[in-house]
Amino acid sequence: MNNARPLAVVTGASSGIGYELAAQFARNGFDLFILAEDQRLDEAAKRLSEYGTTVQKLQVDLATSDGVRQAAEQIHSQSRTTDALAINAGVGVQGPFSESSLDAQVNLVNLNVTSAVYLTHRVLQDMVAKGQGRILFTSSIAATAPGPFEATYNASKSFLKSFAAAIRNELKDSGITVTTLMPGETDTDFFRRAGAEDTKLGASKKDDPAEVAREGYEALMAGADQVVAGSFKNKVQATLSHLVPDSVAAEMHRKKSEPGSANK
């Protein structure tokens, strides 16, 4: 890698918002270290290298303790510190919590929450020593309300939103900024992988992941605390969720997330 160029680390970078975030960094002069669990990472790396950037890749399952340790070690072994960290990898699980696979629910928590904490802690230590850096967490407008039939997913995104705000405050005046990206329904593989295609959320009109990533990147570079990205309805939903009791917000979410709701 060319040490004259800044380095961005992006998790979940093989497709969707993660890939588009990596593309934003590449277009703006960053070298890349991209991570994902699936084989599409190879093609993503090839496409990103066409921007003239140097791309390193690591295919790894960040939901496993061995995988997240391997990722942290390889990030730390670079000849320079990370200038920007985009914690984007995540997964959803759809359906009644009591009827779902416990393994799938724990896997979600491990990927969406535990790996985010682990990698952030490791990278942040280097950033603090250097006195500069930028961190972006891909949360969701789902973070603003309880999520019936997506209970652990919404909770995981709420965790990221709170976690980001807390460490942002801890790091004020340190030269390090922390930004939360909060998209709504976005045109990615998320709903198919989560088994949520028969819900109103899964069947709804979706935002362009490239536009979501652009808004996230611009907010990160501006040092903003958070950005609700995508359509205007996302901003309305995020605002409304703060104005009603959790019980009301949960019922509103249920109407969109209940299995089969796409056909009601």
Fold topology:
Layout: E1 7-11, H1 16-27, E2 31-36, H2 40-49, E3 55-59, H3 65-76, E4 84-87, H4 102-130, E5 133-138, H5 151-170, E6 176-182, H6 190-194, H7 200-203, H8 209-222, E7 226-228, H9 232-241, H10 246-257
Parallel strand pairs: 1-2, 1-4, 2-3, 4-5, 5-6, 6-7
Helix pairs in contact: 1-8, 3-4, 4-5
Can you tell me the CATH architecture?
3-Layer(aba) Sandwich
Which structural class matches the secondary elements? Answer: alpha/beta
Largest sheet: 7 strands, parallel
Q: Give the N-terminus to C-terminus distance in angstroms.
A: 53 Å
The share of residues in helices is 40-55%
CATH class: Alpha Beta
Estimated radius of gyration: 18 Å
What characteristic shape results from the CA principal axes? globular
Task: Tell me the CATH topology.
Answer: Rossmann fold
Could you describe the 3D structure shown?
- The chain has 264 residues and is an alpha/beta fold.
- It has a single domain (7-263), classed as NAD(P)-binding Rossmann-like Domain (Rossmann fold).
- The chain contains 10 helices and 7 strands.
- Helix 1 (16-27) links the parallel strand 1 (7-11) and strand 2 (31-36).
- Helix 1 (16-27) packs across helix 8 (209-222), helix 3 packs parallel to helix 4 (102-130) and helix 4 runs parallel beside helix 5 (151-170).
- The protein starts with 6 loop residues before the first strand and ends in a 7-residue tail after the last helix.
- The mean pLDDT is 94.
